[in-house]
Specification:
Elements (H helix, E strand, L loop, with lengths): L6 H17 L4 H8 L3 H8 L8 H11 L3 H5 L4
InterPro entries: Cro/C1-type_HTH, Lambda_DNA-bd_dom_sf
GO molecular function: DNA binding
Pfam families: HTH_3
Amino acid sequence: MYRKTDYTQTKYMKNEIGRYRYQQNISISELARRTGLSATAISNLENGYTSDILLSHAISLSHALHVDLYDLFCIKR
């Protein structure tokens, strides 16, 4: 079973995806290639057009961006 994130985490994460992608000079299409997600799905996440994300997709994004999953979601340990 998978678990969806809550809205607050997703809202924070959309800001972080774009920020980390921009810092590393990675295009949406390149991030899509690295994660296996569609460029549209990534764009929708970054622009807040989706309110949830599968954990497996979040993990793929964190690996592709070389960012700890906790940092991507702003989860305190």
